[in-house]
Amino acid sequence: MINEITISNFLSHEHTKLEFSPGVNIIVGPTDSGKSAIIKAIRWVVTNRPMGDGMRSRWGGETCVEIEATTVDEFNYVEDGIVVKRIKGKINGYEVGGLALNAIKGEVPDEVIKYLNLHDINLQTQFDSHFLLSKSAGEVAKVFNEAAHLDQIDIALQNIQKWTRDAQRNLEYNKESLETSQERLKSYESLDSIERLLISLEEKEKERQRLSKERQNIVKICDSIKEVSKELDEVGFLQELEGVVTNTLKVIDKQKVLIKEFDKLTNLLDSIKSLQISQDRIEKKLMESETEFHNELSEGSICPLCEQVIIALQNDRK
C-alpha cells in the first residue's frame, strides 16, 4: 500500500507531495492540473517506462519520484515506511531503503517489485480501455493464471520437461563415454608390468642421484686438495721471506739504538754549545766589571776595604 508520494520535476509537477489514507483515495482537479501525471509518475517507478527524457519538466534539475509504501511479505511480516526512489539526472537509477540500485537494460530491480507489489493492471487511466474487456481470451487467461499463480505451475512443468530432456541427453552421453572408456581400458592391460618397470626406474633414479651427490663431494675434495697444495707452495716462499724480514727487523732495531745514541750526542753538543755561549757571555761581563773597577779605583785612591792608598801596578793585560 502506498502511504506517500513525492514528485519533483516530472511533467507538470515541479514539487508535489501527496499523502494517502488507508482505503480508497480520490484525486480531483481541473483539466490539465496533473492528475494523470501522478499515475504516470507511479507507472514510471513501477515499469521504468518511458526510458527517455520526455517526462522531465522544463524547470530542469533532477527528476525524482519517491514512494513510501507498506508491504507484507510471504510470512505476513509487515514492513512499513519503505522508501523507493526513481531518479534521473546526474544519477540514473533506483534507491530502495537508501540502497542504490541500477536498472540494467531498462529492467526494474527485484527489490522495487518486491516492496511496491504493483502491476500494470493496478495503474489504469481514464483513456485506457476497460480492464480485460478488450483483451483476447489468451491475454485474459494469462492475467488470471498470473493471479492464481497458475503460470508458475506451467513454468515448473516446462522446467521439469527441460530437466528430463537434459537428463536423458546426459544419460546417453554418459553411456557413450562409458563404452569409450571401457575400450580405452583394454589398452591398459599391461599396466602391472609398466608399474613394475616404473618402480625399477625410480630406484635407479634414486641411485643415480646418490652417485651424483658423491661425485660432487669428490670434486669438492679435489678442489680443496689443489687449494691446499697452492697454499703450501706459498708457505715455502713465505718461509724464505720470513728470514729476510727477521734480518731486516734486527737491522731496524740496531738502527733505532744508533738513532737514540745519535740523539743523545746531538743533545750533548747542544748543551756544550749552550755552555760555551754562557761562558763567553760571563767572561765578557767579567772583563767589563774589571775595567769598570779599575776605572773607579785609580792610582792614589783609597781602597774601601783596607783603607790604603792604591798604588798602580805595571802589568800588561791582554
| Total of DSSP H or I helical runs spanning 4+ residues | 5
Structural Rg: 64 Å
Q: Tell me, what's the shape?
A: elongated
- Give the averaged pLDDT, no decimals: 79
The CATH topology of one domain: Rossmann fold
Q: Tell me the span between the first and last alpha carbons.
A: 154 Å
Q: Structural class, from helix and strand content?
A: alpha+beta
Approximately how much helix is present in the residues?
40-55%
Query: What is the CATH homologous superfamily assignment of one domain?
Result: P-loop containing nucleotide triphosphate hydrolases
Total strand segments: 6
Uncertain runs with pLDDT below 50, 5 residues or more? Answer: 314-318
The main β sheet shows up as: 6 strands, antiparallel
Strand content: 5-15%
CATH class category name of one domain: Alpha Beta
Task: Give the neighbour order of strands across the main sheet.
Answer: 2-1-3-4-5-6
Return the CATH architecture of one domain: 3-Layer(aba) Sandwich
Report what the structure shows.
- By secondary structure, the chain is an alpha+beta fold.
- Among the domains are: 2-128, Rossmann fold (3-Layer(aba) Sandwich), CATH 3.40.50.300; 129-184.
- It has five helices and six strands.
- The protein has helices at 35-47, 110-116, 137-147, 150-186, 191-296; strands spanning 2-10, 13-19, 63-72, 78-88, 92-96, 99-101.
- The protein has a six-stranded antiparallel sheet, covered by helices on one side.
- It is elongated, with a radius of gyration of 64 Å.
